[in-house]
Description:
Layout: H1 2-82
Amino acid sequence: MSHERMNDERTHWPQIIGSIVVALAIVAVAILITTAKFGSTSSAKIQAREDRIDLQEERAKDRQDALEERLKASEDRREEASE
């Protein structure tokens, strides 16, 4: 009887090892899927933030350029008026 019991215990080890390998594979796939999903979302958020900053900087430069043009035009009108 103990010989049969030893045979039963030996046949369980491959099943246990197989179950562990399958569990690790499932965890690895879950990590890959989660990283792919949320990693790209985070990258997209960073890119969108950078795009907004670039747009704000461009608008600020455009406002500065417009202000300089108005000042130049105002100076030109004063010079013409004083002549």
